[in-house]
Amino acid sequence: MKRFLTLFLFLALLSCKDDDNRRSRNPFLLDTAFSFDINLATNSNLSFTGNSQYFSNAGIGGIIVFNSGIGYIAWEASCPNHVPNNCSTMAINGVEAQCSCEDYRYTLGTGDLLNPPGGDQQVYPMLNYRATESGGIITVSN
Fold first, then answer.
1. Residue 32 needs a FRET pair 20 to 30 A away by CA distance; which of 7, 62, 88, 102 works?
2. Residue 98 within any structural domain of the chain
3. In a domain, 6, yes or no
4. How many domains in the chain?
């Protein structure tokens, strides 16, 4: 029994790890709580695959909602790679979002940075929010 308990404790300790979320959490974008609805009847461009729309009424710098063809994806519109400021709200450019501060470009399909700077600089993807659709209403929340 003592061997079993020792083995169990040893395996339990091996399974512990540092909190990776703390290190990978974006230091530039603070958590903000919100929930809002988008009516597809009045925002019909979101009904088409590949289309997106900016909403200024939530998030840090607004929200970009993207129709991926298999669902809706909601992103924070403030560039994730610096402190929010007067140039950090990204503009939609086709299926990409672009920050005018450094001309960083992100894909709206995955939120990944498409043109990372060289070197060892830590870069962050776009901040994703929950987006669910039911009965012609998209609910975006954090």
1. 102
2. yes
3. no
4. 1
Q: What is the pTM of this model?
A: 0.81
Q: Which residues pair with 74 in a beta bridge?
A: 65, 129
Look-up of token digits 């450094």: 102
Amino acid at 86: N
CATH code for position 89? 2.102.10.10
Distance between CA atoms of 137 and 93, rounded to whole angstroms? Answer: 24
32 belongs to a structural domain: no
Would residue 40 count as lying in a domain? no
